[in-house]
Amino acid sequence: QFLMANKLDTAMWISRLFTVYCSALFVLPLLGLHEAASFYQRALLANALTSALRLHQRLPHFQLSRAFLAQALLEDSCHYLLYSLIFVNSYPVTMSIFPVLLFSLLHAATYTKKVLDARSSNSLPLLRRLLEKLNANQQNILKFIACNEIFLMPATVFMLFSGQGSLLQPFIYYRFLTLRYSSRRNPYCRTLFTELRIVVEHLIMKPSCPVFVRRLCLSSISFISRLAPTVA
Questions:
Q1: Residue 35 in contact with residue 29, Cβ under 8 Å?
Q2: Which protein family is named in the record (predicted)?
Q3: What does the alpha-carbon distance between residue 77 and residue 169 come to, in Å, rounded to a whole number?
Q4: 120: buried, middle or exposed (CB in 10 Å: 19+, 13-18, 0-12)?
Q5: Termini Cα distance of the chain
Q6: Where are the domains of the chain?
Q7: What pTM was estimated for this model as a whole?
Q8: Distance between CA 153 and CA 27 in Å, rounded?
Q9: CA distance 36 to 23
Q10: CA distance 160 to 217
Q11: Which residues of the chain fall short of a pLDDT of 70?
Q12: Which end of the chain is more exposed for a tag (fewer CB within 10 A), N or C?
């Protein structure tokens, strides 16, 4: 009754569980490398479906207008719909599947707990303990996801020069990264950029750091800072 009363949430729960399943079979290619590539695409397509359903839930009345598009781009679900479309037809990159896997796992775990509570307050205690441990590490997981989002930017450039990516991919991914940086719901991308800058500046200011390395790092920090969008 609980599942039928919340059909859209249940559909997203099932698609997230399927995303976790496909992502796991890509990361751990138990069925062979050829099958792993197909699971990579399935995971991203399932994530795109979940993101589209979540976006519909947040903005139920679609309008073909600039105002609606601007409002949609503020939603995290729109960001990851774009993310899935960027990588679904590209060369499989293990780093790109981790945000999809971990976000799906976190959201699926939250809804699984609701399902267990609807069934009985004491049902499946072992599973409940696993879900609680996952929830306790949520902040670390979100930081890890933000790290993946950041370091995928140079990875897309490397893929382009190695012949495994398209010319447009780095530019579209840069747009995705600016959306994540400006996210209202998830500040971890901004936080990680700040923390990485502090760490790099601390290292290069040491006397043992060569002068050319210091200059290169300071120039890179200045360039990246100019590319960062303004956050209200």
A1: yes
A2: Belongs to the PER33/POM33 family.
A3: 20
A4: exposed
A5: 43
A6: 1-185, 188-231
A7: 0.88
A8: 20
A9: 9
A10: 23
A11: 232
A12: C
